[in-house]
């Protein structure tokens, strides 16, 4: 039977179907910690591969060569400076880029002449450039300054907006997780870190916080009256919020990832190494990890922090105690893919009445698209 996505989304919103995401938070925490530790290890060995903009050096670009053999360029450079190990990449299928450590003016001239002779091009087809490490160091410092300022502003704004510092802490942890995992994957692949890569890293911070804020806004809406009722715990109400925003998070991620994946494919396999490839990989990985963290890390962590509050802890104990004695409906945890239902207790079960589902909406609240009025067709 084909899955009806519209009904599935509506059931998630109304609470007829619910996934126990928050209840399994220890599993998600373990996965996130494992990914973070692995990423940290990858940053040490093999580590990031800084581009010439960050390490400095000489660069040669050979346009329209008769051959795209990279070994030819390596032999030319090693013939002039034997201890050098040049980095040679193909650009756009019609050019070669050769990067070396800083060379003297005489060595630059010799390498250029050697490339002209080896690839059968004119001197105008071989462009040379020298990049000092000072520029890359300035870019790195400004990037770190920008990240620090961004995190401070996010913490302040979220604390003021949600009136809850725990949400700000959970959001910052999710941001750090997304950035660390993205950089770790970049280190594992071994692509060069260029200014475009840094731009991609900074961009995913905005995407990650946007997705997290949307989920947290729904959590705040659902949990506003938690202490005023004895039907559901804070965890259950927060879990309902995650389920209600699940479809939106998936749709937003798919719509964002498809064009980025296309850019990544074009940049990596059609045009070769370049700005498109560098920024697209950072965006693709960052968006994917950001979607995971907004669903499986941010809200479960916020709930874990809120459960430490005496008022929330006492309320949860009272709700569970009432269910145990049959005083209130009991929320039965569901497995992955199962609908969370409510089991009646005591007289309610004896009377044979059907209790409402977890998160059942009160009259007058939104009950999905099926409850909306429809215009009658003209005859």
What does this structure look like?
The chain is built from 13 helices and eight strands. With 379 residues, the chain is an alpha+beta fold. The chain has two domains: 14-49 and 135-311, Multidrug efflux transporter AcrB transmembrane domain (Multidrug efflux transporter AcrB transmembrane fold, Up-down Bundle); 57-131, Alpha-Beta Plaits (2-Layer Sandwich), CATH 3.30.70.120. The strands form three sheets. A four-stranded antiparallel beta sheet has the order 3-4-2-5. A two-stranded parallel ribbon has the order 1-6. Strand 3 (87-91) and strand 4 form a beta hairpin. The longest helix is centred in the C-terminal third of the chain and has 32 residues, at 275-306. Residues 332-374 have low confidence and may be disordered.
Keywords:
379 residues; Multidrug efflux transporter AcrB transmembrane fold; Alpha-Beta Plaits; 13 helices
In short:
The protein is an alpha+beta fold and 379 residues long. The protein has helices spanning 5-14, 25-47, 52-55, 70-80, 105-119, 133-162, 165-189, 195-223, 234-244, 246-270, 275-306, 310-324, 347-351; strands spanning 49-50, 57-63, 87-91, 95-100, 126-131, 192-193, 330-332, 341-343.
């Amino acid at each position: 039977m084909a899955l009806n996505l519209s009904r599935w989304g509506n059931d998630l919103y109304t609470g007829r179907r619910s996934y126990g995401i928050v209840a399994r938070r220890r599993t998600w925490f373990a996965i996130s910690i494992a990914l973070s530790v692995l990423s940290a290890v990858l940053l040490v060995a093999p580590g990031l591969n800084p581009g010439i903009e960050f390490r400095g050096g000489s660069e040669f670009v050979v346009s329209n060569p008769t051959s795209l053999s990279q070994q030819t360029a390596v032999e030319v450079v090693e013939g002039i400076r034997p201890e050098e190990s040049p980095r040679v990449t193909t650009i756009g299928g019609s050019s070669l880029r050769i990067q070396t450590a800083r060379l003297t003016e005489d060595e630059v001239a010799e390498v250029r002449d050697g490339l002209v002779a080896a690839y059968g091009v004119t001197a105008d087809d071989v462009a040379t450039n020298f990049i000092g490490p000072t520029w890359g160091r300035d870019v790195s410092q400004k990037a770190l300054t920008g990240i620090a300022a961004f995190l401070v502003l996010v913490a302040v704004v979220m604390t003021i907006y949600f009136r809850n510092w725990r949400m700000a802490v959970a959001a910052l942890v999710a941001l750090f997780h997304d950035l660390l995992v993205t950089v770790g994957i970049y280190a594992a692949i071994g692509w060069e870190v260029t200014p475009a890569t840094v731009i991609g890293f900074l961009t995913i911070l905005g995407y990650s916080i946007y997705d997290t804020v949307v989920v947290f806004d729904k959590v705040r809406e659902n949990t506003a009256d938690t202490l005023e009722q004895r039907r559901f715990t804070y965890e259950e109400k927060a879990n309902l919020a995650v389920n209600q925003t699940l479809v939106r998070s998936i749709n937003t991620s798919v719509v964002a990832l498809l064009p980025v994946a296309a850019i990544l494919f074009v940049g990596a396999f059609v045009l070769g190494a370049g700005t498109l490839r560098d920024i697209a990989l950072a965006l693709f990985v960052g968006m994917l990890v950001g979607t995971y963290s907004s669903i499986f890390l941010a809200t479960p962590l916020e709930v874990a922090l809120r459960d430490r509050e005496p008022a929330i802890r006492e309320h949860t104990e009272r709700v569970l105690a009432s269910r145990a004695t049959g005083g209130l409906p009991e929320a039965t945890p569901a497995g992955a893919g199962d609908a969370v239902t409510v089991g009646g207790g005591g007289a309610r079960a004896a009377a044979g009445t059907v209790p409402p589902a977890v998160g059942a909406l009160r009259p007058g609240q939104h009950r999905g698209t099926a409850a909306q009025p429809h215009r009658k067709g003209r005859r």
